[in-house]
Amino acid sequence: MAEPIRVLVTGAAGQIAYSLLYSIAKGDVFGKDQPLVLLLLDITPMLPVLEGVVMEMQDCALPLLREVIPTDKEDIAFKDLDAAILVGSMPRREGMERKDLLKANVAIFKSQGEALDKHAKKTVKVLVVGNPANTNCLIAAKSAPSIPKENFSCLTRLDHNRACFQVAMRCGISANVVKNMIIWGNHSSTQYPDVHHCKVNVQGKDVPAFDAVKDDAWLKGDFISTVQQRGAAVIKARKLSSAMSAAKAICDHMRDIWTGTAEGEFISMGVYSTGNPYGVPEDLIYSFPVSIKDKTWKIVEGLAINDFSRAKMDATAAELVEERDTAVSFLGV
């Protein structure tokens, strides 16, 4: 058996974590022969709930789970980490200005970035889920100068998966034969789900998505707005935000970091934009198409970008620049 790896989930008493922890602990993410120590961080008032989660984790009697450590202390939670999944963030409350939300989250992710810097392994892979995920991820990365920026990513895989299923449903096929979907930009309603490079396997043959769907107006209209607004639609229906689907996307994202992407295929994740080949402004966490090998992502190069795509990519970048500038002003640097 391999040595156990140390995996942190923050916001661990919340509903995303409740859907996520079982999948991690049973080996769906880091491998069926990789033992784990799970560290569960939440705020002090949530500790009694967290104790219940710990009991349930123990009661699953999972062979890979060596230890579960609940805590409200960052120095314990971030110690010697191999992977950190930062789910906890300040949710937007009614009547709250976006600026106030950013300010509250800058404080959280600055503190967690500093804890990563001080206590985690320098090889730690950090996935930020808590919204605004892109900017929270950037703040965490800036607050952990000794950890490479490439080790930080934010979750746009949920948007990616949503887009894949919409195309699959339209074509009457299963979602796993929809490949090379792209989410560009921010995990917000300005994101751009792009099908121009997407392939769909129909009767054993790879076909461009536009040819398979045969409805350009839908692909350039309702498809995009459905994916952009899907989170809000789930909240409207459930009165709660996406949890099961978010947990599944987190598993997909981390598993791809750990085991890599298939040859010729790419997925979407929010990564550091500096040096990118698509004219996206530097110093952002922006969602790109990436391929992954040896736990290292690489932005897929050479994809043709038409005017329609360019305008949407620029619009979401502009939102991220504004978010970053506001957030950085709160950092006091």
UniProtKB/TrEMBL annotation:
CDD domains: MDH_cytoplasmic_cytosolic. Residues 6-152 form the Lactate/malate dehydrogenase N-terminal domain. The keyword Oxidoreductase applies. It comes from Carassius auratus (Goldfish). Substrate binds at R92, R98, N131, R162. Belongs to the LDH/MDH superfamily. MDH type 2 family. Its EC number is 1.1.1.37. One of its GO terms (molecular function) is L-malate dehydrogenase (NAD+) activity. Pfam families: Ldh_1_C, Ldh_1_N. NAD(+) binds at D42, N105, V129, G130, N131. It catalyses: (S)-malate + NAD(+) = oxaloacetate + NADH + H(+); (S)-2-hydroxyglutarate + NAD(+) = 2-oxoglutarate + NADH + H(+). It is an enzyme of class 1 (oxidoreductase). Coiled coil: none annotated. GO terms for biological process: malate metabolic process; tricarboxylic acid cycle. Keywords: NAD, Oxidoreductase, Tricarboxylic acid cycle. This is Malate dehydrogenase. Catalyzes the reduction of aromatic alpha-keto acids in the presence of NADH. Plays essential roles in the malate-aspartate shuttle and the tricarboxylic acid cycle, important in mitochondrial NADH supply for oxidative phosphorylation. Catalyzes the reduction of 2-oxoglutarate to 2-hydroxyglutarate, leading to elevated reactive oxygen species (ROS).
